[in-house]
Each structure stands twice: as structure tokens, then as C-alpha cells.
Amino acid sequence: MFLCFTLIFKRNDGYQEPFQLIYEPCPCWKKGDKRIINFNESPHYQKGSFKELIKHIKSIDFDKQCVLITDKNWSNNSGYDDNNTLNRIIEDIETEGFKVVVVQF
Predict the structure, then answer these.
(1) Can you tell me the distance from the alpha carbon of 24 to that of 51, in angstroms, rounded to the nearest whole number?
(2) For strand 62-70 and strand 27-31, is the pairing parallel, antiparallel, or unpaired?
């Protein structure tokens, strides 16, 4: 099973905009089945990866709120990265001025 995080942005027009961070085995941002950004240089989440996503989708008017969804047992798949991955992603999102709510189920 791939390590996967789903990020849902709240847009200013009231709609939501979902993206996924999937390790295949290196992390990449996807929108549906389409790869948006592929980070081939490292199998680990790198600080600034969220900023790269924001640059790529800058045409969407966000209100700086998002929900980050992951399996509560996500660390079982952390062979793709390490147990601090979730914290690095949250920190990266907050660094860009977004409020993030994490849902694990």
C-alpha cells in the first residue's frame, strides 16, 4: 500500500479542492490521477513541497484553510519516509500561513 495523504482546500467560492500527496515511491502531488509535481530527487517529504503545490495551483482562490486526511495507521507505511512525515507536512502547510485540521481514521 502506498503512503498517501489527502489535502482538501477550502476555496473562497465555497467549494472544496482536493489533492493527494502520494509516495510512488517518491512523493508527488496529484489531482485525481494526474501528477502535478513529482519529487524524484528524494524519497522523503522535503520542506517547501507544499509551497511548490501552491505555486502550481495559484489560480485557485483559497481562503488559507485546509483539511489533511490520513489513515490512523499511516506510519505502518512509513517505510517510504519516517514517523515524522506527518509533522513535517503540517509544519510546511502552517509556514505558508494556512490553518490545517488533521483527520486520522
Answers:
(1) 20
(2) unpaired
